[in-house]
Specification:
- Helices cover about 45% and strands about 10% of the residues.
- It contains 5 helices and 4 strands.
- The strands form 2 sheets. Strands 1-2 form a two-stranded antiparallel sheet. Strands 3-4 form a two-stranded antiparallel sheet.
- Helix 2 packs across helix 3.
- It is globular and about 50 Å long.
- The protein starts with a strand and ends in a 10-residue tail after the last helix.
Length: about 150
């Protein structure tokens, strides 16, 4: 397990334990996906704000001890989701997403499937159902309600 504090260029530095990217090379989840998930969590949580610059691809790859194409793929994924603006020689800059994308039925089904798989993994690791449920409730209570478009 590799842990890394991401230093974001442009005056914003992530320094708390919750801002640590953890890469588990033994995980069945691809490393690029772990990077995407870690950065997305910080974007959604507000630790990364519009205008912030992420570390250059090559620098983050060196820091994480992964191939630069792995980080580049993670950044491209986040850009495709509308989180990042990627420009050559300017790096990755966080974009403003005032209106969240409209959830599609397929996206909701995929989310439910991933959640079931994650819960199954936690149960297989020995976590009791009560503990899993407690954490899910705590996370759900911390979510900000989304107002549907047109409301």
């Amino acid at each position: 397990m590799l842990e890394l504090y991401i230093n974001v260029c442009g005056g914003h530095t992530m320094q708390t334990a919750s801002d640590t990217i953890r890469i588990d090379v033994d995980s069945s989840t691809p490393v690029y996906r772990q990077i995407v998930d870690a950065i997305r969590a910080r974007l959604v949580g507000g630790a990364l704000r519009p205008g912030d610059r992420l570390p250059p691809v090559r620098q983050l790859a060196i820091d994480l001890a992964v191939h630069f194409n792995t980080v580049a793929e993670a950044y491209r994924t986040l850009a495709a989701e509308g989180w990042l603006d990627l420009r050559r020689r300017r790096g990755a800059q966080v974009l403003s997403r005032r209106t969240p994308p409209q959830p599609a039925h397929a996206a909701e089904a995929k989310f439910a499937q991933r959640l079931r798989e994650f819960i199954a993994s936690a149960r297989a690791a020995g976590l009791p159902e009560e503990t899993i449920a407690l954490h899910l409730r705590n996370l759900a209570e911390g979510l900000e309600p989304c107002v549907p478009r047109g409301s």
